[in-house]
Amino acid sequence: MSRSWQLVSLAVILATVTAQAVAAPTTGRVAWVIDGDTFRLASGERIRLAGIDAPESRKDQARCAEEIALGRDATRRAIELLKNQVVTFERVGRSYERTVARVTLNGRDVGQQFIAEGIARPWPPHRPKPDWCSGAVAPSE
To answer: Does domain 25-122 fall into CATH 3.60.21.10?
Structure first.
């Protein structure tokens, strides 16, 4: 085999191993729940659940009063489920200085559980954010 083919083969092997290492599931303890779809690990890393959207709980981020109420419920449920738990996650991207990841707890997909419980909605990539305010009142200043 020529030297150039050896280098190409080595590059392909290294790229494959690197891609597998980056996508490998990792575990971490949830130290703080920020809202219904974002939390912080004990390591300090912020994790945003991939593929879902929970309503916003802060007035400066929500589009209506109903979204704030729903967001507070979603945050409470996320705290109940996740706080101090060890989760497994697979990094799939970055958004607003957060890791976007698929997260499981005790073998169950957390995002899918939140959707099933009605505290989050599916949010496929490159689609508009779900509307939590259809027919609702805008938040007061």
So the answer is: no
